[in-house]
């Protein structure tokens, strides 16, 4: 692989070729990910094409390969997906971002557009003449229905509730809502607020934008970094005021809590903060206990372990601080329960539900916080469906795209079969991309865990 200095001069094609060589040398994912990831399936096909059949990989094949990575987090090697994101970003810097891609990823703009031009959305859904033309322009597969946007989004509701203004309280929680709960499924955000209020907290909804994940996956580096910086500043400002910070979208959490922090521990400011000597690197080792480190020789690792990744232009200490203080809402509620501060006056819900833990939640290594909470509800029969490599296949908005739609359904089919075999009354999952996919593929209603918890509180 190229050194970090050489890497700055690499073309996206060269980066992807390096990725292919690294993966072929390891070969672990050839069998482990063959049914779970369209990217690795194509990567090994291209490698075999070039090295066994003698047919060189073309630039268009490399470009298509990059498009197949959805940054789901299932890779055992975190370097690979971030290298692919780097390649995507260099492609976009050369080519520009297609308008269709920009619109499809900009949920707030789509919400405004659909609210302003509802007849346009209706035409895309049902008009036999205009629908196919509009879908083709947007590069949306003809079999995909666009999600409907509610008349009132969560942020409008929150403003009317006064949640956009800070209130004096001993138990103040700042909520990063995310685009899906903000604009597509506002009942999720309202359920979070309802649960917090039921547990004696006041809620603050700070100024916020998209977390940045959709733009990262598409290769829009400038927009990704801008969004990450703006949201980080707002959240850390709330933390300085004493607020606890939460999110309800696992993709937002995966981006803000895990990806944004990548390589920040190797930075000089962090090394100084933990009193690393001149010849050593201290890397946190939570597996050894709180405040414990692995001590590495700087002479061996200083060229490899640097804060020179995708987010290195953003302050490393701020990235670490945000990660340390931002929590999944399920984890936050579990912490309340462990301290005997969680209200457990749930009414009985005699229902049979299937719970699916989405990729971005599993990759944060936090267990199944919502599953534990839902089991507190009397008479609720809830079963986890799927293993660590099961995926719904949606990949954010990738399942809407004409070139990814069929792959999306194929990737998700093993999980769909497990759910059909279980035949629940409804499906529960943290991820709203999964919700869109389940709604498309299966006949069961789909809910976020907070909707079920709020329902049990409300029924009591």
Describe this structure in words.
The protein has 460 residues and is α/β, with parallel strands linked by helices. Helix content is 52%, strand content 9%. The strands form three sheets. It has a four-stranded parallel β-sheet. Strands 8-7-9-10 form a four-stranded parallel β-sheet. Strands 4-5 form a two-stranded antiparallel ribbon. Helix 8 (107-116) crosses helix 9 (118-126) and helix 9 packs across helix 10 (130-138). The protein is globular, with a radius of gyration of 23 Å. It starts with a helix and ends with a helix. The mean pLDDT is 90.
Name the strands of the widest sheet in spatial order. Answer: 2-1-3-6
Label the structural class. Answer: alpha/beta
Distance between the terminal alpha carbons, to the nearest Å? Answer: 60 Å
Q: What shape does the CA trace take?
A: globular
**Using only CA atoms, what is the Rg?**
23 Å
Largest sheet: 4 strands, parallel
Number of helices: 25
Could you report the average pLDDT, rounded to the nearest whole number? 90
Strand segment count: 10
Low-pLDDT parts are none
Helix proportion: 40-55%
Instruction: Please report which band the strand proportion falls in: under 5%, 5-15%, 15-25%, 25-35%, 35-45% or over 45%.
Output: 5-15%
């Amino acid at each position: 692989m190229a050194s970090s200095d050489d890497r700055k001069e690499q073309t996206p094609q060269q980066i992807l070729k390096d990725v292919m060589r690294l993966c072929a040398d390891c070969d672990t994912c050839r069998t482990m990910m063959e049914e779970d990831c369209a990217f690795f399936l194509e990567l090994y096909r291209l490698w075999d094409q070039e090295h066994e059949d003698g047919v060189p990989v073309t630039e268009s094949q490399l470009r298509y390969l990059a498009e197949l990575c959805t940054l789901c987090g299932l890779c055992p090697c975190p370097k690979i997906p971030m290298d692919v994101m780097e390649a995507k970003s260099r492609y976009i810097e050369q080519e520009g971002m297609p308008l269709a891609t920009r619109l499809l990823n900009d949920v707030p703009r789509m919400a405004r557009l659909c609210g302003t031009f509802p007849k346009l959305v209706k035409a895309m859904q049902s008009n036999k003449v205009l629908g196919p033309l509009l879908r083709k322009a947007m590069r949306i597969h003809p079999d995909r229905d666009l999600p409907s946007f509610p008349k009132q989004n969560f942020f409008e509701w929150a403003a009317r509730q006064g949640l956009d203004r800070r209130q004096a309280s001993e138990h103040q929680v700042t909520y990063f809502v995310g685009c899906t709960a903000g604009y597509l499924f506002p009942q999720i955000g309202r359920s979070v607020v309802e649960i917090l209020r039921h547990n004696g907290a006041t809620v603050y909804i700070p100024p916020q934008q998209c977390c940045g994940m959709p733009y990262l996956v598409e290769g829009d580096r400038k927009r990704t970094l801008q969004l990450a910086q703006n949201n980080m500043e707002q959240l850390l400002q709330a933390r300085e005021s004493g607020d606890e910070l939460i999110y309800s979208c696992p993709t937002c959490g995966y981006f803000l809590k895990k990806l944004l922090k990548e390589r920040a521990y190797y930075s000089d400011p962090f090394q100084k903060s933990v009193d690393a000597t001149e010849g050593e690197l201290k890397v946190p080792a939570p597996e050894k206990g709180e405040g414990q480190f692995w001590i590495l020789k700087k002479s061996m690792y200083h060229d490899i372990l640097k804060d020179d990744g995708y987010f290195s232009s953003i302050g490393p200490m701020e990235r670490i601080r945000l990660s340390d203080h931002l929590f999944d809402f399920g984890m936050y509620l579990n912490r309340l329960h462990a301290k005997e501060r969680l209200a457990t006056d749930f009414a009985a819900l005699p229902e049979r539900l299937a719970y699916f833990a989405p990729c971005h939640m599993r990759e944060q290594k936090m267990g199944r916080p919502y599953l534990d909470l839902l089991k507190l509800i009397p008479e609720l029969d809830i079963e986890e469906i799927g293993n660590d490599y099961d995926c719904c296949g949606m990949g954010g908005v990738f399942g809407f795209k004409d070139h990814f739609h069929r792959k999306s359904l194929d990737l998700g089919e093993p999980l769909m079969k497990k759910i059909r075999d279980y035949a629940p009354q409804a499906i529960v999952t943290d991820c709203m991309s999964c919700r869109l996919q389940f709604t498309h593929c299966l006949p069961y209603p789909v809910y976020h865990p907070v909707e079920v918890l709020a329902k049990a509180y409300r029924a009591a």
